[in-house]
Amino acid sequence: MPDNKLRFAPSPTGDLHIGNARTLILNYVYSKSISGELILRIDDTDKDRSEERFYRSIIKDIEWLKILPSAIERQSSKTEKYMEIRDYLIKEGHLYPCFETDEELNRRRKVSLSSGLPPIYDRASLKLTKDEIRAYEANGIKPYWRFKLDRKSITWNDLIRGEQTIECNSFSDPVLIRADGTFLYTLPSVVDDIDMGVTHVLRGEDHVSNTATQIQLFKILGSNIPNFGHHSLMVQKDGSRMSKRIGSMSLNDIRDSGIEPMTLINYCARIGTSDSVEAFQSIDELVNNFSLAKISRSPARFSFEELMGLNKKIIQKLSFQTLDARLSDLDINGKDAEIFWDTVKTNINTINEAQKWWNIIKNNKINIDATDINRDFLKIAQEALPNAPWDDKTWSIWTENISQKTGLKGKELFLPLRLALTGENSGPELATFILLLGRELVLNRLNI
After folding, report:
1. Residue 48 within a domain
2. Average pLDDT, the chain
3. Whole-angstrom Cα distance, residue 144 to residue 184?
4. Is 438 left (phi over 0), alpha (psi -120 to 50) or beta?
5. 303 and 332 in contact (C-beta within 8 Å)?
6. CA nearest to 268, candidates 30, 35, 4
7. Which of 128, 186, 224, 438 is a Cys-bridge partner for 132, taking CB atoms 3.0 to 4.6 Å apart?
8. Are residues 224 and 344 in the same domain?
């Protein structure tokens, strides 16, 4: 078994979005770089918001990326273990019951702020007597439970940010258990990391502040402390925050747009680093060039246009043999299929776009706006068209003949031909494309 273990821990409360994907991919690539393994842990302790359809969506996304976790854990199946640890922490005095309402806490915060003091919980509940606690319970008021922090400095050597120090006297004792008995993120996360033998925790920098709490819990529970690393967050191109709650691009959206899995892996592993984004064709290539030390402290700016540009570079390097089945699913098959792919792949952004060009070849009629095409020019082109058989010199011979008869060159010569033959004003090299069309179809297209 690998000595190094990482985990990706999404909550099934929505679809994975591009920010989640970056955390997943950084964990995956880093685990490969240290010969470790990656565990998928589903943080589904929030019963009200967790949904099975989102769990299935997460699994689908990870399978699409071809990331194979060594194990899948669901926190909802481990409640008894969390309760056992809860009871231990209560017995040892590390958790204490609180009964304040949200209104009371808000009022105290306002008083502290108005007095120029930080709005830190004053630990008033620690002063409650047993009789006072029983009185609350007799009135049907159930406690929520706070973790009693050791109010000292906690320092760790962050894998990305370097040495980090958190002053635990600067924030409130965190709530670990709700009044209904359900657990918040922190306690189950630490318990699972211990049980699963997690050695490295790689996550977003929004978790930096609660790392101090978790380190204290690891120590109380007598466990080794994982190596923590906190990467910068991803923002949109304009610098605004990305969140599934405001509808940022989900992995489902990205998949439907035609982005290749390797494109997204390349992009997320390199964006926000000192390295440029490259079109690596394999995970091994990417891993050999990967280092956490290259991740910047500045936010990583996501650009869909840049992602699509990378996708174009990725598919240009794909051979017909690797795509045979996928192209066949698009009805691209037969003796011309391989030549066709090599002809169009430099002019498409996604593999699905190849279908449009295949249809242009296979359909007798296409939609052509002939408004700006000179019909006399097309007649000359028909008359100058070489007889079969055709080869790779046919295009140059044909266009030279047309040029001599019309005096046209460059765009004025080539664009009308492209429009007549394809209905598009840009696209694959026509020297090869006309060989796929064939002489009869070319003649038909010129006869507008």
Report:
1. yes
2. 92
3. 11
4. left
5. no
6. 30
7. 128
8. no
- CB of 169 closer than 8 Å to CB of 152: yes
Could you tell me if 265 and 384 lie in one domain? no
> Cβ atoms within 10 A of the Cβ of 19, count?
21
Identify the weakest region by mean pLDDT among 132-141, 241-250, 372-381.
241-250
Find tokens 């439907």 and name the residue: 256
Q: Give the Cα separation of 55 and 12 in Å (integer).
A: 5
* Residue 104, domain member (yes or no): no
Q: Are 302 and 234 in contact (CB under 8 A)?
A: yes
| 345 and 253 inside one domain | no
Same domain, 313 and 212: yes
Residues 89 and 225 in one domain: yes
Mean pLDDT of 23-38: 97
Q: Give the count of alpha carbons within 13 A of 194, CB side only.
A: 20
> CATH code at 420?
1.10.10.350
Do 95 and 54 share a structural domain? Answer: yes
| Residue 370 is assigned to a structural domain of this protein | no
What integer is the mean pLDDT of 123-150? 94
Tell me the one-letter amino acid at 366: I
Both tokens of 74, joined, read 């669901």
Tell me: do 23 and 69 sit in the same domain: yes
Q: Domain total for the chain?
A: 3
**Phi, psi at residue 200, to the nearest 5°?**
-135, 130
Angle of CA points 61, 62, 64, to nearest 5°: 65
Q: Are residues 357 and 211 in the same domain?
A: no
Q: Which residues contact 27 (CB under 8 A, 6 or more apart)?
A: 6, 7, 8, 38, 202
In a domain, 129, yes or no: no
Angle at the Cα of 343 from the Cα atoms of 355 and 64, rounded to 5 degrees: 50
Q: How far apart are CA 26 and CA 93, in angstroms?
A: 38
pTM of the complete model:
0.90
pLDDT, one tens digit per residue, over 71-81 is 999 999 999 99
Residue 246 has pLDDT above 60, yes or no: no
Say if CB 252 and CB 57 are below 8 A apart.
yes
433 or 371: which carries more pLDDT confidence? 433
* Closest CA relative to residue 426, chosen from 352, 376, 360, 327: 360
Identity at 429, one-letter amino acid code: E
